[in-house]
Amino acid sequence: MGCKATVGPGVRHREITERRHKAPNSTRLSAKRPALPETIVFGRRPLSSVKLAQGFWAPAFSAARCIVPMRGYFEWTGDKTPKTPHFLHGDGPLSAAGLTWSMGLPNGEKSRCFVVITREARDASGEVHDRMPAFLMPDTWDTWLAPEKLTGDRKAETLAMLEHTSGDVASTIREHVVDRKVSNSRTVDSTDPSLLEPVA
């Protein structure tokens, strides 16, 4: 199964799609993220991730957990522009721990939003950036999505679970440099498979 598109941090795409190639009865799985107006920000910048130790444990968020599927993710290195983009990935689709909520838009409509929870990076991820997504394994999906609020022992157990699963997944992550065209989210074709190919 191959993925024909991936999403970079902070890039607002309407759909992340995993496609099966040349399979007559294949299924298509989609995770939608509404495109938000530039005026909707948290602080000075649009919010695309939240640190594991931050207000994620606040009651408003702790019962609104989601799973963010991804083929991989991009990080950039270098002190000067243009920076060098790296694609970090495993052997197959990854699942990151996320938070979701409904936001009111200026036109009166409601939009479902999400952020990816991040933690201190390690292994290959740590060689490129100091943060990485908090990853989940399939056998922890139901636990993560349980609707109960995270208080007391549940909070400690969930933190321990994320620490364990993130470490297991991080040990399988690999990275390679990709073409700088991926850095321009306004002009790049997000379905272009060459975005994920390594460059010398």
Automatic annotation (TrEMBL):
EC nos: 3.4.-.-
What molecular function terms (GO) are annotated for this protein? Answer: lyase activity; peptidase activity; single-stranded DNA binding
Gene3D superfamilies for the chain: SOS response associated peptidase-like (3.90.1680.10)
Per UniProt, which keywords does this protein have? Covalent protein-DNA linkage, DNA damage, DNA-binding, Hydrolase, Lyase, Protease
Region (Disordered) residue ranges read 1-30
Q: Which SUPFAM superfamilies match?
A: BB1717-like (SSF143081)
Coiled-coil region(s) at which residues?
Answer: none
User: What are the BP-aspect GO terms?
Assistant: protein-DNA covalent cross-linking repair; proteolysis
**InterPro entries, per this entry?**
SRAP, SRAP-like
Q: Does the keyword Ligase apply?
A: no
On the tree of life, the source organism's domain of life is Bacteria
EC class, as a word, reads hydrolase
Q: Which family does it belong to?
A: Belongs to the SOS response-associated peptidase family.
| Cited PANTHER family | ABASIC SITE PROCESSING PROTEIN HMCES, DC12-RELATED
- Report the protein name in the record: Abasic site processing protein
